[in-house]
UniProtKB/TrEMBL annotation:
Residue ranges occupied by any Aldehyde dehydrogenase domain in the UniProt entry: 16-473
Highest taxon of the lineage: Bacteria
Keywords recorded for this protein, A-Z: Oxidoreductase
Keyword Oxidoreductase among record annotations: yes
InterPro entries, sorted: Ald_DH/histidinol_DH, Ald_DH_C, Ald_DH_N, Aldehyde_DH_dom, ALDH-related_metabolic_enz
Name used for this protein in its record: Aldehyde dehydrogenase family protein
Source species: Halobacillus naozhouensis
High-level lineage: Bacteria, Bacillati, Bacillota, Bacilli, Bacillales
Similarity section: Belongs to the aldehyde dehydrogenase family.
Oxidoreductase in keyword set: yes
Length: 482
């Protein structure tokens, strides 16, 4: 079936503009071109940043109620156009239509929370008289926006992760320039359309489409950009920190998330939750389950049930509501996953189910007997592959779970409160989910990790804190003036 190719514009300084050059956006399922999008130049990016800085500097007062109103209008727009958003997500990315609809709901919630948190971005009074000699001093501190935020977003949640940049930035009074992933820019442009329709003043938002290599350095190093918010891979994240200098930086860099299943766990619940956590969004999920450590007493039963449930997953057309697993974002990514699995098998690993590629599709795969030194055991696979390993006890499970250079989220299944709290204390991660897989998040909670998983925290309120600075105000009162 032939699909009409859309000719898109980008939002540059509040204006919809075409580019001298364009690039193609393809549906990864069929490789069919679905849109042509402006290939922005370095000059385009500089113009967007300059416009953002001028807009911010020239807006002496941007009342909180106006920001709230705009965000609430965006929420209404997203609700009214929910199915259109979902079909864009499913067309340009890897998600099934059902997963895409779920992302639209989450993104709408993210913007709604941003409106709510704008009301609550308060400072507090300071008791200066706690110091001897300061009895005649009173004051407070309050938060003010950094000015211009630069945001770089990935392909795997092309709407909600953009919402997690734009929503908090606007709620806290900043201008923001977004560089979305080149393979999935359409969702970001549609969200920009929602903000334009909501009456966002020109210049507070730009969505600049094009090559990260061409545009990234300008965004990261431009002196007017006071903060970089990045979600992506650790190699790019490390280069950003080297180039950003003294700017504020918030980065979520992925993970190799572990789940622990103990003898006293509800196995049915553990399997259901972990299968979903491992294979939703084709495993292209920063908190997706990658390693499962199962206590020996229930290992065989857990593995058998997990493999059976995995084999039942439907691989197929993203737009079919019965489909569980769609294609990966590009065929080369499926080839990479295939290579990593084959390397592990050559080193002694066993494929319990899956291990098959068809074009951009990689079938849900369970590996056992994976050597600890294998790349797939240490790095983020970002694909539909999970490793299941027996352990003697909780201590060994926690030790193995911590033995990677990531620490975003983890999960444990147990009915023993002492086991739960041992894990809470000893797991080096940013979030620990009890009787849930690592793949659980709400958009209001602080989200981020330790070690190589990043710097800072997202989640609307916490992103707003990083996108603002605290200013202290102190009055020294003179008795003879009273």
């Amino acid at each position: 079936m032939h699909t009409k190719v859309k000719e898109m514009k980008m939002l540059l300084g509040g204006k919809w503009v075409s580019g001298e050059e364009t690039f193609e956006v393809r549906n990864p399922q069929s490789s069919q071109v679905i849109a042509r999008v402006p290939l922005a130049s370095k000059q385009d990016m500089s113009l967007a940043i300059d416009k953002a800085e001028r807009t911010y500097q020239n807006t002496q007062v941007w009342p909180t109620h106006e920001r709230i109103t705009i965000l609430e209008r965006v929420v209404s727009y997203m609700i009214d156009h929910a199915e259109e958003f979902a079909r864009i997500i499913a067309s340009e990315g890897s998600k099934t239509i059902n997963e895409a609809r779920g992302e639209v709901k989450r993104a709408t919630q993210t913007i709604k929370i941003s409106a709510e948190e704008a009301r609550r971005m308060n400072g507090e009074t300071i008791n200066f008289d706690q110091n001897e000699g300061s009895e005649n001093r009173v004051g407070y501190h309050y938060r003010f926006p950094v000015g211009v935020v630069g945001a770089i977003t990935p392909f795997n949640d092309p709407l909600n992760l953009v919402a997690h940049k734009i929503g908090p930035a606007i709620a806290s009074g900043n201008a923001i320039v977004v560089k979305p992933a080149s393979v999935t820019p359409l969702s970001a442009l549609k969200l920009a359309e929602a903000f334009v329709e909501a009456g966002l003043p020109e210049g507070f938002l730009s969505v600049v489409t094009g090559s990260g290599r061409e545009l990234g350095d300008i965004l990261v190093t431009h002196p007017a950009v006071q903060m970089i918010s990045f979600t992506g891979g650790p190699n790019v994240g490390e280069r950003i920190t080297q180039k950003a200098g003294t700017k504020k930086v918030s980065m979520e860099l992925g993970s190799n998330s572990p789940v622990i299943v103990l003898n006293d766990a509800d196995l049915h619940d553990a399997v259901q939750s972990s299968v979903s956590g491992a294979f939703s969004a084709v495993g292209q999920n920063c908190i997706g389950v990658q390693r499962i450590y199962v206590e020996k007493g229930v290992y065989s039963q857990f593995l058998d049930t997990f493999v059976t449930r995995t084999a039942e997953l439907m691989v197929g057309d993203k737009m079919d509501e019965l489909t569980d697993i769609g294609p990966m974002i590009e065929e080369k990514e499926a080839e990479r996953v295939e290579l990593w699995v084959n390397e592990a098998v050559s080193a002694g690993a066993t494929v319990a189910v899956g291990g098959k590629r068809e074009g951009a599709y990689y079938y849900p795969t369970v590996l056992t007997n994976v050597p600890e030194s294998a790349k797939i055991a240490k790095e983020e696979i970002f694909g539909p592959v999970v490793l299941i390993q027996p352990v003697t006890d909780l201590n060994q499970a926690v030790e193995l779970a911590n033995d990677v250079d990531y620490g975003l989220q983890a999960g444990i299944f147990t009915s023993n409160i002492h086991h739960a709290f041992y894990t809470i204390k000893h797991m080096n991660v940013g979030g620990i989910m009890i009787n849930d897989s690592s793949d659980y998040r709400i958009d209001a909670m602080p989200f981020g990790g330790t070690k190589g998983s990043g710097v800072g925290r997202e989640g609307v309120r916490y992103a707003m804190e990083s996108m603002t600075e605290s200013k202290v105000v102190c009055f020294r009162l003179q008795e003879n003036m009273l």
